[in-house]
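Q: What does the assembly look like in three dimensions?
Context provided by user:
Components: two
Sequences:
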Amino acid sequence: MKAIAVQPGAGVPDVVERPVPEPASGEALVRIHRVGVDGTDYEVIEGSHGGVPEGDDRLVLGHEAVGVVDDPNNTGLEAGQYVVPTVRRPPPGIETNEYFERGEPDMAPEGAYVERGIVGAHGFMAEYITSPAEFLVPISADLAPWGFLVEPLSITEKALEHARASRSAFDWQPNAALVLGTGSLGLLTVAMVAAADDFERVYCLGRKDRPHPVIDVIERLGATYIDSRETPVDEIPTASEPMDLVYEATGYAKHAFESIDALAPNGVAALLGVPSDWEFEVDGGYLHRELVLHNKAIVGSVNSNRSHFEAAIDTLAELPDWLLEAIVTGIYGLESVDRAFPHATAHAATADDESAGTPDDDTTIKTAVEFTTI
Amino acid sequence: MKAIAVQPGAGVPDVVERPVPEPASGEALVRIHRVGVDGTDYEVIEGSHGGVPEGDDRLVLGHEAVGVVDDPNNTGLEAGQYVVPTVRRPPPGIETNEYFERGEPDMAPEGAYVERGIVGAHGFMAEYITSPAEFLVPISADLAPWGFLVEPLSITEKALEHARASRSAFDWQPNAALVLGTGSLGLLTVAMVAAADDFERVYCLGRKDRPHPVIDVIERLGATYIDSRETPVDEIPTASEPMDLVYEATGYAKHAFESIDALAPNGVAALLGVPSDWEFEVDGGYLHRELVLHNKAIVGSVNSNRSHFEAAIDTLAELPDWLLEAIVTGIYGLESVDRAFPHATAHAATADDESAGTPDDDTTIKTAVEFTTI
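A: Here is the predicted structure of the complete assembly.
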């Protein structure tokens, strides 16, 4: 079968030939329909994040997939059922551990998991994959064409759940939310927060020049675009309003610290990005004091578990078609894999990297690879 | 009547003469028994925090009090009932606001409250005070001698409640807790965390040379003393173990950032200190990434509300007498007020300031002023 693999740090992804996997006991064989591409894939490609499975020199990419059960292999799944696979698995040679037993592999520390398509395990960019049935989340046939968006949506489901939990010891009454980043994760989050009951006003920060399709999406969602070149994060409370929630999806480390300033009293910043080392000066006394005197919180969040995938499928069902069509700017077959990875050779930054600097003129938002049509 | 007042930044506290206050409708008249002294009092004395009520040039100090109802004034309280007053009140001229209506004045932003004895309202270091009955929390006669510890205990009740809430979206299984600071708040917190069901091992960081009564208290509580001059906060995971909870009670801003390193995956740092501005360099990329990849959280916490005072009274009832006697190193009458404020002229740091540096040889832990015996 065909698969898309990469030697991290040493090349661009290309199509390789691999044997069709054989499902072990408890595993189903899944025929892959579509797999999304995101910033993490670019980090894996450039070698700054993740790594190949032991004993291999290439990694099959892909962690945002949707497929159809080809051989249920007595797992209880039905042939023809569309499914979205979750990402984390127990490390090689370990059947399970306490985090997987609790259904919370997203809370497992390093060493207690591998991530398919990211670190230590091959991903989903292949014609067929096998997976234990417990890691395959059913999705309806009508949502299946967009099923590769479930994984990124699940990331935000978890982050918002943790952010809200951090404010659950009191009667939090949020109004305004700010999303940092205009990548696909940022835009999906703007849509989710705009649709949520607890936020009346949503803002999204980026560095795009008007006119731009991304700004059109933000505004059609009823949100307000903020240009980071005109309004730095820490000036947003004065220029717009203080934010009850800041959702950071840029991986730009200064934003994490500036978010403390952007928050309203009792607000929470959810951090999602994975920056590299970067030393800079902060007014640590001020930031510390600001966190304390205004009861502010910062919550880091990574990965997601099956409950978040299930919530994400419900969320996906509510998102308007125009939004999905606007965000997914290209779906490419194996014959044009290079078009699915437009940034793989162009630069090393992540797709969601929205650091201040030169304008981002790229109109690509989200791409996917299609292995079979449905 | 006698009261203890200060001109912030311009002097040391001294005894002044004030008229006995008249309770307004809904207020009771309380005869004050004892009032504790803490780091915030020293910040007020030196003028770095808080401020006098409008139209006054001196502030009556004191926010950790216990007294006895002298005139219930038809509030429903009974004469002779011991009470602990809470600290925040609506600003002058405002009867209430949404935060007070919800019973959560601790979550009110600046401008939506005054704090008795700290900012904008006279405190409890007086022979008599008046207070709306809703801000007077009943305490039993046998606990009343230690009732001035209820306010600091309530600060930790709130901080721990918020820290635990931040971890409530998943099955948090903490084991180890680290308290930064060996002041009275730090020691009371060590006792509370050591008695809690969710922490098996408790550590307390300070900079005292052995032998020292504070180290004796830590060890008698079953906790482990860590000398910050030997083991910086960010090296604690290697030297001891990673911490599921870090409770910062030093006001030393670098600790807030180093705590991210001290935390175990899924851990939370509760920040309590109120440092001044201080610029320094951090590896912001690393700290941001560490928060995200290990699902860590930081929760700032200030003040407390009536529910935390009630929980603190329950906690106080469980604390052993030897601990209270060890922590309260002096109770002084009005004739020796200077002994109740041993640091008021010596230096400008807060009582809980545990920044790395010269050893702290002081054996004073907690003092209180006694206005009447009971």
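Follow-up: Chain B touches chain A through 59 residues (CB under 8 Å).
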